[in-house]
Amino acid sequence: MDCTGFMEWAVGNGAHHFGVDIRDCSNEGGKGLFATTDFRENETIISIPVGLIITAGFIAEMPNYCDVFKRYCLKPFEALVYFFLVEKKQNSKWAPYLEVLPKSFSTPASIHPSLEPEDFPYCLRKQWYVQKNELKMMYKKFVTILADNTIWDHFLWAWHIVNTRCIYRNNKLHPLIDNTEDDSLAIVPLIDMLNHSNDSQCCAIWDGKLNLCKVIVTRPIRKGEQIFICYGSHTNGSLWIEYGFYLKDNICNKVEISLGSLSLNITDNGGIPIVLCHLIKIVMIKTLCDLRVLLGSVSQIYIEK
């Protein structure tokens, strides 16, 4: 099943697009969506019906899954991973979608799983530690559910599918799902083909009246351009850990400055008396805070104390 077949399947199940095509992306790797016509601001590019939107509650209503969810109370993220872990391409409604999903990922969890938090810059250590621990605990849970039928590599693939493709949606809570941390995750076929850029031209919204997930143009798009959406404000380190890529010119990058280390460096290498060094530190704090106010959302400067 190629991308054309997938598009036909999506349209046959109620999806609509108004001039997009799936193509290989030489720069980003993988695939992306490209405009086959010009789009103006506020135009709808894609609409996906609720019947194609995969949520934890949606899966819990499927005959092959509800019995498992009655015995094991899974969180929304876990329920989505479980779906991709056990759903088979043969005789599945979702086969055309499963066929076009990526087979591999370039995240550290996939290609450098032995890395320790200490191998990362200080600002990324907690993120990597939390992710590694989440993977370990979730895998143990699925081993309990599926016994010896859980293969780590296949689990890791399913986890990546959810982590790299889910979007925010305020879902109706389902009694078979552990909603203690709410349920706001959804996988939306076709829309999940949109790649990330801080300079995106569209956004995804939920149309409650029509029960559709839509992609709306936020600035004009020319025919032939790749269509981007913004995943949020992420540094390149965070993008690599979560999605396996980075941006060449990322306006969300930031550098943490340790004033304690910098003060010591000034004292040791510059011959500046310690009293004067403290005065410099106070001036620097004020300067950095002023920069934070001036730069606003364009950049962030964190003061590590």
Automatic annotation (TrEMBL):
Protein origin, superkingdom: Eukaryota
Domain SET: 18-232
Designated name of the protein: SET domain-containing protein
GO molecular function, one term: protein-lysine N-methyltransferase activity
Any single Pfam family the record assigns to this protein: SET
